[in-house]
Amino acid sequence: MSTTVSSVIGAAPREAAPGAGAPGSGSAEYSSRNPARLDDVVARVELSGPEDVHAAAAAARAAQREWAQVPAPVRGRVVAELGRLVEANKESLARLVTREIGKPYAEALGEVQEIVDTCDFFLGEGRRLYGQTVPSEMPDKQLFTFRVPVGVAMVITAGNFPVAVPSWYLVPALLCGNAVVWKPAEYAAAAARAVAELAWRAGVPQGVLNLVYADGEATFAGLESALRDGLVDKVGFTGSSAVGSRVGELCGKYTQSPCLELGGKNPMVVAADADLDLAVEGALFSGWGTAGQRCTSLGNLIVHRDVHDEFVGRLDQALRAAVIGDPAGDVLYGPLLDQKFADGFESVLSTIADHHKVLGSSAVGRIGATAPRAGFQGDPEAGLFYHPVLLDGLRPDDHVFTQETFGPIVGVSTFDDLDEAIELGNAPGYGLSAAVYTSDPATAFRFRQGTGAGMVSVNNSTSGAEAHLPFGGNGRSGNGSRQSGIWVLDQFTRWQSLNWDFSGKLQKAQMDVATVEPDRGYRLPPELGGTS
């Protein structure tokens, strides 16, 4: 069964604009397909053009002021109700995520739980949007600070985490009194509509949360016109580093500071004293879980020379034994998200060179009759299923070493000392997540000091966010903004100061300030310990 979805702007759906379809198709409709069964169309998506992106920003602008007047604790109750509704629909929403993007059901359940956790955290923040009372340098004058909403937020999200990551933006943005225009990935359109429906039924007015389906170029053009007309005050973007750079450049043109959560080339260092079984388990989950399609997926394994052969042998064995296939079952991973990602992964595979030792499976490329995978669950011909790849002998100038690959492939390099490992980890220029496996606290802390990653794990995988911990990266992984926890409040509020003078006269700062006249030439006499 498939559904048809279209943009919801204000209180009503919008018809798709002519010629606003998938790139190069000339059609206004995009088919969101189940990547595990390509003949299963999950949603027919009526795509909007730039004018609808602009209209959504205008609708949000019109609704935002009234929403901001709702007391923050009441907005917190709306967030609480969203959490309860998501909880009540957890299995249904997880099944939809599995069907639409091919994420294993167990992981999809965890993703839905992340929405619940985010709501549980932020419902209390409605009572804790604290400002400060600040002492003045002058008498009979008091200073205050307040958090105020930024206004209208344009949120553009990827589809690899189609419900959890959007909640990191939507929940705090709405709690803080902002109105939102949400542009989800086309290939995750049905999951996005489901989340929006739950938010509206939790008490979020439709004009306060607007849902727009559009392709990338239409979104970019609509965002530019909305920024030019002063309709958008904050942009949140999760996606590739290349597109994030374009979004950052556009926002800078209009003096906006976006929240950019971009790609990663996340290193995992395996020290000589590491628990190798634990390190293999962590590498397997973070490198190939979700078919390597997380921004926090393991990219480069950096293994101490003394344990390299043992570790790689164990990992190769574990990867060959891992079950791949139907995401409704108990599998390490299912299909790639969409045909465009399969095409991108094929391009990555073409960079495998003669100096690489290819491990991890019986073949390379798409799983099928001519390239079978032992233990595969389901019908490999029905979907976008690919063999896992473990590349040993990685060099710092290899494409797989320097670039985010967004697929089930991980490379291995070796190191002799920790400084070399840190340098290799930082070399690609990303800075999202990094991990180190060691039994030595000094190694763990020195790694933390040296890595450029915004998030560091010790004896754990590169993947795994919690709702009350800051999430975000540096360098090619982002602009230093953070999501989740109290830190995201700085993205969706601005500080406003108030000075209140009740002296009955004009007191001029830095001029009408009482002064202290110390005797700086005084020295202690000998009887009090001074020198003569």
UniProtKB/TrEMBL annotation:
Summary of subunit composition and partner proteins: Homotetramer.
EC code(s) of this entry: 1.2.1.3
One Pfam family cited in the UniProt record for this chain: Aldedh
Active site per database record: E261
Ranges of biased composition (kind: Low complexity): 10-29
Signal peptide span: none
Residue ranges constituting the Aldehyde dehydrogenase domain according to the UniProt record: 28-497
Protein's name in the database: aldehyde dehydrogenase (NAD(+))
Keywords, sorted A to Z: NAD, Oxidoreductase
Top-rank taxon, per record: Bacteria
GO molecular function, one term: aldehyde dehydrogenase (NAD+) activity
Sequence similarity: Belongs to the aldehyde dehydrogenase family.
Record region (Disordered): 1-33
Record-linked InterPro entries: Ald_DH/histidinol_DH (IPR016161), Ald_DH_C (IPR016163), Ald_DH_CS_GLU (IPR029510), Ald_DH_N (IPR016162), Aldehyde_DH_dom (IPR015590), ALDH7A1-like (IPR044638)
